[in-house]
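step: validate -> pass
step: tokenize input -> pass
step: predict -> running
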Amino acid sequence: MVKLLKTANPDGGPSIPVVVEIRSGSVDVTHVEITRGENEGSTRAFHAAVGFDTSTASFPTGASRTFYVEVHVLTEHWVATMQDAMTVEKEPDIAKSWDDLATTSGGDGAIHAVLVKTWFE
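step: predict -> pass
step: emit ->
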């Protein structure tokens, strides 16, 4: 499933489109927030918070799977990527919001869009 959200621009100006790609049986994304801050010496690094609706996920009984989230901030001349993952056994294991995704990149130029992907392996 693919859907379109919007998020505030951390650099000011109009909101940024967020394209969300949810692989079959994965977790729906309810909101995305992009901010800037310090990360490993970079003072304008991108940070992301992603909210989830876990009711869309399908969990096989007794099986653990790894849940992945990728956030790509597309700027004028660069794509800054953040990824996180966790092993889950059932839907309640996934927090409703992850706010610790970060990259050392601040991109290059204006932010054009954000791409978020979720999936299980």
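step: describe -> The beta strands are 2-7, 16-22, 28-39, 42-53, 65-75, 79-88, 97-102, 111-120.
step: cleanup -> pass
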